[in-house]
Specification:
single chain; alpha/beta; Rossmann fold; Arc Repressor Mutant, subunit A; 2 domains; two-stranded antiparallel sheet; 10 strands
Length: 342
């Protein structure tokens, strides 16, 4: 049977106190791909199943029960194409589930793809399957993942899947929290069935077109509100309106009558980043918003946001989002605007 006619079995682990969205979100992507293929007169590409300690209902952390199709103990791993390990409040117990970890270690070479959603990465880490690899997880669980010394933890990305192996992995991969699992599933569908199908599924689910795996997990504007000194609070309120100006640490410190060293310490203490990194994040966030709303050309956006030359803007986009400003504008902005350099 050819690869195009093979129904790939996509399985997800199910356990008590799992995050229900970590399971249903990604699996819905594969189910929706089947619907899109049916609309095109094609056979289904996927079959989804849920594996637990034993068949039957399992209570998730939301209080909703999800029914497992079969026990992972009785499942021939070679019959699965892709296995996803979700996260949730019950993940700690799974990290100590010796029999499950041993099943994963033995089964991984027989799987085409093994991935995790959210804190499910901790299970893969405990099994030793992420050793020597880059990995990510929900931002709240990064510290726990970093306790595994042989893993290169990358907090500023959505997932580590890359079928080319150039910016991630095709066989074992991880993703950040909840909705990042949907981005991961869309990337898997794109690798299997092509970009047009992945975009059709994204539209069907009323999502933005698939976000690159290297994109940061959350924006500056969504960062937690820190408890900070009034002078620092006033500075942070002032910065977004003056992005085109000189925002060096010396200039910022002078504005609020602090020494550069004291200001740097305040940023690290209250925001967890250096002043330079924070300014870069805000400039990038505003640039993304301007390109998304097609409010200005790329050259104008670079100037207004303090990047100066469009090449500096391009480098920052590639560094943090793994896309060019042109690609971001084409993907998220109005189709007829935002792409010109003039």
């Amino acid at each position: 049977m050819s690869a195009m006619n093979t129904v790939r079995v996509i399985a997800s682990l199910l356990y008590p106190d799992v995050m229900s969205l970590d399971i249903t979100g990604p699996l819905q992507v594969f189910a929706s791909a089947n619907v899109e293929r049916q609309r095109q007169g094609l056979m289904p590409a996927y079959s989804v199943c849920l594996l637990a300690d034993r068949p039957g209902p399992v209570m998730t952390s939301s209080g909703i029960q999800i029914v497992a199709d079969q026990s992972w103990r009785d499942t021939p791993v070679e019959q699965l194409d892709t296995l996803l390990i979700p996260g949730g409040a019950g993940v700690e117990a799974q990290c100590g589930h010796i029999e499950l970890l041993d099943w994963l270690r033995k089964g991984q070479p027989l799987l085409r793809r093994l991935g995790s959603v959210c804190s499910g990465a901790l299970v893969l880490a405990e099994a030793g399957l992420l050793n020597g690899r880059r990995a990510t997880t929900h931002w709240a669980d990064l510290d726990a993942l970093q306790r595994h010394a042989f893993i290169e933890v990358e907090g500023d990305r959505l997932h580590t899947y890359d079928p080319t192996g150039q910016n991630g992995y095709a066989d074992i991969f991880t993703s950040a929290g909840v909705t990042a699992g949907i981005d991961l599933a869309l990337a898997l569908v794109e690798a299997d069935l092509g970009r047009p199908m992945a975009l059709s599924v994204a539209r069907r689910l009323v999502m933005f077109l698939r976000r690159p795996g290297g994109q940061a997990q959350f924006s500056t504007c969504l960062s937690p509100e820190p408890s900070r000194t009034p002078r620092l609070a006033a500075l942070l309120d002032w910065i977004p309106g003056h992005l085109s100006e000189d925002l060096s640490i010396e200039r910022l410190a002078e504005r609020i009558n602090m020494t550069p060293r004291t200001l740097s310490r305040a940023f690290l203490r209250e925001l967890g980043v250096t002043p330079g990194r924070y300014i870069e994040q805000v400039r990038l966030e505003v640039a993304r918003a301007l390109l998304h709303d097609a409010q200005a050309s790329i050259s104008t956006v670079a100037r207004l946001c303090g990047f100066g030359h469009p090449e500096n803007l391009r480098r920052t986009f590639q560094k943090h989002l793994s896309v060019s400003p042109q690609a971001h504008s084409a993907r998220f902005g109005e189709p007829t605007r935002g792409l010109q350099h003039a």
